[in-house]
Every structure is written in C-alpha cells, then in structure tokens.
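Input set for joint prediction.
Command: fold jointly, output tokens.
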Amino acid sequence: MGERAYRVALIPGDGIGKEVVPAARLVIDAVGQRFQFASDWTDFDWSCELHARTGSMTGGRSIEELADQDAIFLGAIGYPGVPDHVSLWGLLIPIRRRFAQYVNLRPVRLLPGVRTPLADRGPEDIDFLIVRENNEGEYSEIGGRLYEGTPAELAVQQSVFTRVGVDRVMRYAFELARTRPAKHLTSATKSNGIIHTMPFWDERFQAMAAEYPDVRVDHFHIDILSAHLVQHPDWFDVIVASNLFGDILSDLGPAIAGSIGLAPGANLNPEREHPSMFEPVHGSAPDIAGQGIANPIAQILTGAMMLDHLGETAAAAAVVTAVERVLAAGEPRTGDLGGTATTEEMTVAVIAALA
Ligand code: NAD
Ligand code: IPM
Ligand code: MN
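tokens >
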C-alpha cells in the first residue's frame, strides 16, 4: 500500500510565525504518522528578515515556485523595519491573488473551557463562519498620490467590485450555509453610506438568494452588524463580507471567542486549480515574538483546515478533538488565555492528546 503524501510549502514568515509554524508542523507530522500519510515540506524563508538582507520579501525568487504545491502553510508576514504595505503587498496579498484564493474562510467558535468576555454566553452561542472576499474590494492597488509633500497633497484609493468576484464568493457562502444545520447566511453591507459598490453587493446578494430558497438570509450594515456580533452572537451562522469588512469581523469574532491565538483561517481556491494557503487570522505579534509564549492553537487548527482540504478528514478531526481536549482540561494555557504556559508546553499537550 503506497503511503499518501502531500507537497506543502512552509512559509513561517515573521515574528511568532517562526514559533507557531514549527509547532503546528510537529502536530501535523504526528497525526500523519497515526493516519499514515506524509507531508513533504519545502521550506521558504520568505520574510521581512529576508527583505532586510536582499530588498525583496522572496529574496528575488518568484511566487510561481509555489504553483505545484498541494498547499501552502503560512505563519504571518509583517515586522517593524519593513513598512506593512511593502511586506504584505510583497508576499501575502500577491499569493492570495495569483492563486485565486478568493475565499478567506475564518471559523469562529467558542471552544469549551475557554472564557469569553461576553457575560452569560457559552459554546452554543458562538459558532459561525466568516466568508471573506479575498481578492478584490477595498484591497486594490488602483489609485495614487499627487502633490506629495505639499499642502495640496492627496491620496486616492479605488475599491473594485466585479460581478465575477462578488458572485463567486457569495456562491461559496450560500453553498456553505446549505451544509450547516441552521442554513442561515448574513451579508455584511454598507449600502447606506457607500453609494456605488455596496448597493451592487446587495443586488448580487438578493439575486443569488433567489437561487437558494432553502437558505435563510439576513443583511446588516457593517456598523450594527459589529454590535450584534457582540450582543447577539447566536444570530450568526455564516457571514459573507467584502475584503475589508471581513478582515475586521475576523478579528472581532475571535475576540468574543476568547483569543485571536485560537483563530484559524484558510485562503481557498475552491476550484482547486491552484494551491490554497492556510494561515491563521493573527499576525506576527511583535510584542511577544521571540519569547516562546505565543499560543500555537490557531496555527494548529489552521493545520487541521489544511488536512481537511487535502482530504485527510479523519486526521483533521483528530487534531480538532485533541485541541478541544487540551482546552477543556484547563491547562496548559498560554498567556492570551490567562495562563503561563509556553508554546512548546501547549504543543506537547496537543500531541499527547492525539494519542
Ligand atoms: P497581531 O495579530 O500580530 O497581534 C495582535 C495582538 O494579539 C498582539 O497583542 C499579539 O501579541 C496578540 N496575539 C496574536 N497572535 C497571538 C498568539 N498566537 N498567541 C498569543 N497572542 C497573540 O496583529 P498586529 O499587531 O496588528 O500586527 C502585527 C504584524 O503582523 C503587522 O506587521 C501586521 O501587518 C501583520 N499581520 C499579518 C497577518 C498575516 O500575515 N496573516 C495578519 C495580521 C497582521
Ligand atoms: C489578515 C491580515 C491581512 C489582511 C493584512 C496583514 C494585509 O490582517 O490576514 O487578516 O488584511 O488581509
Ligand atoms: Mn486581519
């Protein structure tokens, strides 16, 4: 019997990415042993550190090198010393676009044993999926600056919403909602203040809703949606949002579910024409980097999403169960969860819970 093997590009990136990616890799290798598959890792040192040495986030190499991988496993990009728009537009955002990873799927779930800052809320109240548009919208390089350094200075940034781009992410969200018990999809809009793109977003949402009569739909302007997420998290099942709104909601969600250190994510090319990229919601956390105290759970659960995507569904479920066991046990816990454990202690506990 030939062992299953997956080619995975490993990009730890910056800051705590360099700590949590190796930790999650240990977990994935351990579960691979148990479920008899191998991950064939290829290391890429693409990072701000490399930029400091070479003037390029990839050291002059091309992201085309990632094209033949089965998946990309990434930590975080961005570190003081390189402006964020240089590092992120030099690596993360080009990968998302080149490989048409137009869905950024970010599950938010309050796991048993984790404390939410919301009073009187439990795991049954906080369990939703954010489907963030990941290729266009407010994140666009169309625009420019004029009269720099003078009193007449100006900056223009053009949002781009295409019918293809909006429809494909909404279709993904409707199909996803269909697989959930509640079959409920909420659209994040702002068509009261944003006069062109957001009414278009609403129109496309309504048109598609007609094709999915079995999915119950809602829409809220992003301002009150943010408030509802805090006051009524149980109202949400699947949320579809534009690039920027989805970005903001996907930090708010983990905040109510206990910690951003627990929040996984996946940049998906649903057609599988290109590799998808698996990356947690959090960044490089320069404030705690280098101390060995970052919570590795977000990266580990991101690994579970990758295994699921690769078809290793039993292994993915085993990782999630192991994480749930560790969190339910109450210890070890990293600082973000109120404890004093290290990244390594947390990782060892998850691997032990796999057995
Ligand atoms: P951040 O997510 O890095 O950190 C926000 C806060 O959360 C910090 O206090 C940090 O210590 C804490 N935190 C994050 N992850 C944690 C973990 N696993 N365990 C414990 N605590 C954790 O956000 P930021 O400070 O806004 O950004 C820092 C850098 O990361 C910037 O350069 C930013 O552009 C970049 N960034 C990259 C990505 C990515 O590559 N996907 C995502 C977000 C931010
Ligand atoms: C994220 C991050 C990125 C984004 C930044 C670092 C460009 O915040 O993945 O959520 O906004 O997409
Ligand atoms: Mn973000």
